[in-house]
What does this fold into?
Amino acid sequence: MPAADTTAAGSGGGSTTGTRTGPAALAGLEPRPGVAKPDPILVADDVVRRFGGLTAVHVDHLEVQRGAITALIGPNGAGKTTFFNLLTGFDRPNSGTWSFGGRNLAGVPAHRVARLGMVRTFQLTKALSRLSVLENMRLGATGQKGENFFRALVPGIWRGQQNSIDERAMDLLQRFKLDAKKDDYAGSLSGGQRKLLEMARALMVEPELVMLDEPMAGVNPALTQSLLGHVKDLRERGMTVLFVEHDMDMVRDISDWVVVMAQGRIVAEGPPDTVMSDTAVIDAYLGAHHDSDLTPEEEREVLEKAAAIHEAEAREARGEKGDDA
Amino acid sequence: MDFGVIFSNTAGALLNAEALVLALAAIGLNLHFGYTGLLNFGQVGFLAIAAYGLGVGVTYLELPFGVSVLLGLGLAVVLAVLLGIPTLRLRADYLAIVTIASSEVIRLVARSAALRDVTGGSSGLTGFARGFYSLNPFDSGMDIGPFEYSANRLWLLTVGWTLVVLSSLLVWALMRSPWGRVLKGIREDEDAVRSLGKNVVSYKMQSLVLGGLIGALGGFMFALANSSIQPDNYSTLLTFFAYTCLILGGTARILGPVLGSILFIGLLVFFENFLVQGIRADVIPTWIMNENQVGVIRGILVGAGLMLLMIFRPQGLIGDKKELQLDARR
It folds into this structure.
């Protein structure tokens, strides 16, 4: 059951006109933060995450259009990855609600979010080093009978399913040009190949929404074009893509809609060209006073703030890790 | 100097009860540490609680032998769940701290004077093994080559090594299945596995329980081999011996813990006999060492041997060096 069939055609509640769905429907929307989309797959309201006294994320309202590629950009420390973690259940917000395909996701643990069809990748690639490339892919398939302890002991129960999983995995590996490496340890792949593997593995879950956290980080330029192609291809196959990225050329090239975060808030959104000429965005990236020099007091203030953020994060990191039920 | 005695004593020790107890403990650890990445530093706790379950069941509660075995296994499951609930959501090091502490708690509670009526306090328990040896189908002992086995010893070793083989087969069957794949994935990176829709905490708990149960079998065999339970035999040293065996043989290999245990016991007995024979034959002069110092020197020599092995063969006897060189996470 390729994801393409279910999502491309089925996009939500009755869209006979065709203009309500996909990236085309974004044309002519008013480019302001929190604008309603014609056919949202993901809706977040008042999502707040504090680390100590620091508010890392405070998103009032965000909708992500189904079937489109949405970029989430913003300067370092803007809260993009934290927001990602919140949406996918890897972290819990202090308050807020968000829903995926109409289903409320608040309090749903990460593994169940993935099973619902919202799958993420990580900024620092998480290839499972001492498993082969093919084993990495197999792990992505959901609903495997052999993942139950007792059924695992009887190979007859899961072998047939495993064969069809292998077929799907090999198709994907071919698409990502990793099929020749299927028996190699994932740890022996290059950085770019690991990114490709992680993306291919996420597709084994058959997601409706793919969330990519900096897909281009650490990838050599030769592979960049191929990765870009793959991301666009996800849209062609009817999937929705939300990605965090720093590379502005990439954002301009592939995204249908851009959301800008700064200091935990969404400060702008709109089509790529509109957003990149937005003064709020330029301020967020370069600082509101980028024309004038910093006074020593201002500099100290900035440094203290950075130190506070760093400390809060470190305290958080020492504490509890991701939850699961 | 009689090399015949040295080698026959060593060969006889390779399959003795100590080796199989360590093997069972290490097979359980292999599941925890080798396959799931759980840092369990309290494996001996599972051995102890199972042994005491059996011993207290037979002597204090006056239950039949079979029921007492089930009691021991049940207690091991309870221990695994109790350890797992607070720690499996946290980072790996928390489990290490909690397990090492809990295994000591079990030992200290068992040897406490307050529980003398139940657990025998510091002098331990005896008189619980009759049920096991009454099941012995062997009428008489057996001489195999230079080795003499009494009927009871033969029965113990048969049951023990059968358990080792069955546990290894179980781990083998699981590790080639999708269930085992999830465990290995968790060892590499649990967040990645979580992001693929697997309930990581549940799998870690299953691994902790199963590895603890295999360790519990080792606890039964340890108690039955001596027909007594001495609380101080269940100290953390046993956990680290089991880790030594596991790493010596090769982690995340089905036969790694078994071969490692046999090799470890073999080295200990070889050096002991070598030193004793050397002193008796005046090959080792008394101004270097006398027979009373054999135990200590043996430990030093085995330690040095293990260091050499780790330097020249860090992956263990049957580990995969290539795999070791893939830096797992960091």
